[in-house]
């Protein structure tokens, strides 16, 4: 089991399965919503329990995706692929240890011009 929360604690969650290796998304939407890029892990929706759900604000960023933030502190928490059976959970919101390692970078064609990706992990432009 893995637990986590937003910065102020108004939203807490529990993942009842092992965490998948996360990816780092460098797309424009993730960069704007986080201020840098989003590192998240995909969790089957059935394996995610949320308390304080009334404190989540959902922003519909596209037809297929909505993003969940804490209403109180603004923490980035979730990337919900509406028509899928999984939800992305922001790695920074988990309590340590997560027992995971970053697997890859995605949407690197849209990355910020102020940093380089030098960790040697696979990079997908899209």
TrEMBL record:
Is the keyword Metal-binding in the record?
Answer: yes
Instruction: State the Gene3D superfamilies in the record.
Output: glutathione-dependent formaldehyde- activating enzyme (gfa)
Looking at the record, the residues that make up the CENP-V/GFA domain are 2-116
Q: Which InterPro entries does the entry mention?
A: CENP-V/GFA, Mss4-like_sf
Q: Which UniProt keywords apply?
A: Lyase, Metal-binding, Zinc
Q: Which family does it belong to?
A: Belongs to the Gfa family.
Q: What is this protein called?
A: Aldehyde-activating protein
Taxonomic classification: Bacteria, Pseudomonadati, Pseudomonadota, Alphaproteobacteria, Hyphomicrobiales
């Amino acid at each position: 089991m893995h637990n986590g929360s937003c910065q102020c604690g108004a939203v807490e969650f529990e993942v009842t399965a092992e965490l998948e290796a996360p990816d780092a998304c460098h797309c424009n939407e993730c960069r704007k919503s986080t201020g840098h890029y989003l590192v998240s892990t995909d969790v089957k929706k059935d394996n995610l329990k949320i308390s304080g759900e009334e404190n989540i604000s959902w922003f519909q960023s596209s037809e297929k995706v909505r993003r969940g933030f804490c209403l109180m502190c603004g923490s980035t928490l979730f990337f919900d692929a509406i028509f899928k059976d999984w939800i992305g959970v922001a790695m920074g919101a988990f309590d340590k240890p997560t027992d995971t390692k970053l697997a890859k970078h995605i949407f690197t064609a849209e990355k910020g011009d102020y940093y380089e990706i030098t960790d040697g992990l696979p990079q997908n432009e899209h």
